[in-house]
Amino acid sequence: xxxxxxxxxxxxxxxxxxxxxSLKWGRKGxxxxxxxxxxxxxxxxxxxxxxxxxxxxxPKDGWRFxxxxxxxxxxxxxxxxxxxxxxxxxxAPGNAAMFAKIEEDVLxxxxxxxxxxxxxxxxxxxxxxxSPLWNLKGLRRLRALDRDEAEDFLNEVAxxxxxxxxxxxxRMAILSQYFxxxxxxxxxxxxxxxxxxxxxxxxxxxxAGSEPAPKEHIGPYSEEAAS
Length: 227
What we know:
Layout (H helix, E strand, L loop, with lengths): L1 H9 L20 H13 L29 H14 L9 H14 L5 H15 L1 H4 L12 H11 L3 H18 L3 H6 L5 H15 L15 H4 L1
Helix pairs in contact: 3-4, 3-5, 3-7, 4-8, 5-8
């Protein structure tokens, strides 16, 4: 637990590495610096209008991602067991390489989250790993169960108030990366290129001063969603 505390409290939760200099005010920044940064952003349209020349999922655009959070060994083992239990079983896509990529992507995403949320997720990993003990279902941790048994147990844990929150947090973090993988999107026939292009076109028009049509809104503000 000491090594986990070191990871949570002593780790460097990296800021976005490619933020424009106008946003890097430092810990001692004041309103004057903030206003100056906002004015700079307003004047520099390139910050809001990057090159739209490609719709590749993984463009080689020079963007540097933060390094994944380094986990203590015991946390890593518990997290890998959760990944296998939460990702859908065959015939859905899934193999060791995919699970390793999901692990890396989630741990990289932690760098961009609020530290308290990131810490809460890692605590949830340990709580779920120990859930068979605190549910009085045996003396083995979740990591010691086989894949199907672990999945069934998580479904049972999710029926309780506290367990529901823990399982939801773990599923949200893991499945968001699972369904964003190339293998899964290919398997379900998801090809968002046309939609992405339409949103980029809308963004360009809005930056030029035009208003979006009602049908172009997404979410609760969409007239189509409300009808």
